[in-house]
Design a protein that fits this description.
622 residues; alpha+beta; Calcium-transporting ATPase, cytoplasmic transduction domain A; Rossmann fold; Calcium-transporting ATPase, cytoplasmic domain N; seven-stranded mixed beta sheet; six-stranded antiparallel beta sheet
């Protein structure tokens, strides 16, 4: 009941009503008009009761020094002002605090739907093979050692080892790899990944809470639990503000024997401007960032971003676009030009469901290649395809596939392949009549703004690191292009988290930037998580503290400069509010202020703080 009443009184409409009655009290006093009941009483009831409730609750429930809060000091000042009949002063300090609470809430609302979506990815059933019979069972019933059959398009229910069959598995949910990984007998598959092509039988090795997807879910939960809410500056100061204020008020009363001066000290000592310094600056900065396509979910994230000295990037979909494109067409036969080779391979791959095949067909159509229908088409999962096109028997796939079909590779061809691997490219070999006639290489594309962005970060003494699930050669190639020298490749989600933890333990303030579901634990574990908002997964966006709406990583230096400026503004506002408080206390002790004028002076400090914060909104940071 008390909690519901507090929520009602601290709502925005209730606070507006309190402000209207406070203004009415001020106007009536200036006009020397009186009503049977001072309108400021309404403000005291609306804004003061929640304050008093919070102060008492902390006194009872909080341990040690945390019992003392800014709410306690303001409650004491409010009660003292009421005791001497200055209701306007009592209502004013309560109202300012209510505004501070609302601004704080607006900047710290956090969406928490991502974890629920991640949990929904967990497979609910599996196809168990026992005595030659297939039986669909709940994923919870799968035990270690069970044999499971996984058809094309199905999600792998648990971690396991392939016993029979060959396929390609989409592991992007765990590793963020841009293309499916070829798998054969003896290879490991992970729960939550998707079997793209062949039928495979798998022996379960890690089930239930031990599976990779469940570990991923657990890591996000653990990281979420570690995210403590930002403790407000006023509460940090309250442990010494309260006793100092009371001491000065008591000394003033003893020396001057004037209770009005003592109460005025308590009123002007209230940290209203101090309370407003952080949320107003953060609200202005969040508004500024939103105009530039950067969504900041909390003031804590903005505050921490200003302290970041190390930024860890995912590769696929973050530094790169995450879309494979044909980058090289290499004809190994003098009589065949590149356009003819492209048309042949695209015709052969036109019925393929593999991402490499689809990318080749798309590229060929974009370049006006004339495609022919294949009369025969066969696919070997995880290896390649065979197709008959215009009377030609074509084998398109990896080295193993061509070798198994009697097609030899010359040393020159092998050297070409190695060069392409070092450039981070995936290759499709084309064979005919026992000879390799060409190579089509495909590559992800580095975002054009990546290199300039990294240079700007280095100029701000901010280190850039690459953390990716892709293979080492691909990662190293793209990192070199972007200007990043520190590279960690072939990482699972828990390994990304481990690297971030290691960086944090070494004294760095770490920001993680990613786009995939597999990045969610790392985004949560870092001091600040930034997600690619347009093409990034919903789970990554909701796990992050900040989202880039247009996937423009060129905004990262802007975000860093904005955060730095916000920190400077907050520090300046706090210093200003403390100066005004000290000045007002001195004037109160000397009897030059009374509770009402003291409230107005200290309210002027709050206005200055708000005005300084609003300057952030239109400042240029580009």
């Amino acid at each position: 009941m008390l909690k519901k009443m507090k929520e009602l009184l601290t709502s925005i409409p209730a606070t507006i009503i309190g402000g209207i009655f406070l203004l009415a009290s001020f106007i009536l006093a200036k006009l020397s008009m009186e009503l049977p009941i001072d309108p400021a009483w309404i403000t005291v009831l609306i804004s003061g009761l929640p304050l008093l409730y919070g102060a008492i609750r902390k006194l009872i429930c909080n341990p040690g020094i945390s019992k003392i809060s800014s709410a306690l000091l303001i409650s004491i000042a409010m009660i003292a002002a009421i005791a001497i009949g200055d209701l306007f002063a009592a209502g004013e300090v309560a109202f300012i605090m209510a505004i501070g609470e609302i601004l704080e809430d607006l900047t710290t609302d956090r969406a928490k739907k991502g974890l629920k979506k991640l949990i929904n990815l967990a497979p609910t059933q599996g196809r168990k093979i026992e005595n030659g019979t297939e039986t669909m069972i709940s994923a919870k019933e799968i035990k270690e050692g069970d044999i499971l059959r996984i058809l094309p398009g199905e999600t792998v229910p648990v971690d396991g080892i392939i016993l029979t069959g060959e396929t390609s598995v989409d592991q992007s949910v765990l590793t963020g790899e841009s293309i499916p990984v070829d798998k054969t007998v003896g290879d490991e598959v992970f729960g939550g990944t998707i079997n793209r092509f062949g039928v495979i039988d798998v022996k379960a090795t890690k089930v239930g809470e031990d599976s990779s997807l469940q570990k991923l879910i657990r890591m996000v939960q653990d990281a979420e639990a570690k995210k403590a809410p930002m403790q407000r500056t006023a509460d940090k100061c309250a442990s010494w503000l309260v006793p100092v204020a009371l001491l000065i008020a008591v000394i003033t009363l003893i020396v001057t024997r004037d209770i009005v001066r003592a109460v005025t000290v308590l009123v002007v000592f209230c940290p209203c401007a101090l309370v407003l310094a952080t949320p107003t600056a953060i609200m202005a900065a969040i508004g500024q960032a939103t105009k530039h396509g950067v969504i900041i979910k909390s003031g804590e994230a903005l505050e921490k971003m200003g302290k970041v000295d190390t930024i860890a990037f995912d590769k696929t979909g973050t530094l790169t676009y995450g879309n494979l494109e044909v980058s090289d067409i290499i004809s190994l036969t003098p009589s065949m030009d590149e356009q003819t080779l492209l048309a042949l391979v695209a015709s052969a791959e036109s019925k393929s469901e593999h991402p490499l095949g689809k990318a080749i067909v798309t590229y060929a159509k974009q370049n006006n290649a004339v495609l022919s229908d294949s009369t025969v088409f066969r696919m070997t999962g995880g290896k390649g395809i065979y197709a008959e096109v215009s009377g030609r028997n074509l084998y398109c796939g990896n080295e193993t596939y061509l070798t198994e079909n009697g097609i030899s590779l010359s040393e020159e061809t092998k050297n070409r392949l190695e060069q392409l691997r070092e450039q981070g490219k995936a290759s499709v070999l084309v064979g005919e009549s026992g000879v390799c006639i060409g190579i089509l290489a495909l590559s992800d594309v580095l975002r054009p703004e990546a290199s300039a962005m990294v240079k700007k970060l280095h100029a701000m003494q901010t280190k850039a690191v690459l953390l990716t699930g892709d293979n080492n050669k691909t990662a190293t190639y793209f990192a070199k292009q972007a200007g990043i020298t520190e590279v960690y490749a072939e990482l699972l989600p828990e390994e990304k988290v481990a690297h971030i933890t290691e960086l944090s333990t070494a004294g760095n303030t770490v920001c993680m930037i990613g786009d995939g579901i597999n990045d969610a634990p790392a985004l949560k574990s870092a001091n600040v998580g930034v997600a690619m908002g347009a093409m990034g997964s919903d789970i990554a966006v909701e796990a992050a503290d900040i989202a880039l709406v247009g996937d423009d990583i060129g905004k990262i230096p802007y975000l860093k400069r904005l955060s730095n400026a916000t920190i400077r503004t907050i520090k300046f506002s706090i210093s200003l509010s403390m100066f005004i408080n000290i000045l007002a206390v001195t004037l109160s002790v000397l009897g030059l202020l009374n509770p009402t004028t003291g409230a107005l002076v200290h309210n002027a400090g709050s206005v200055f703080v708000v005005l300084i914060a609003t300057l952030l909104y239109d400042r240029k940071f580009e």
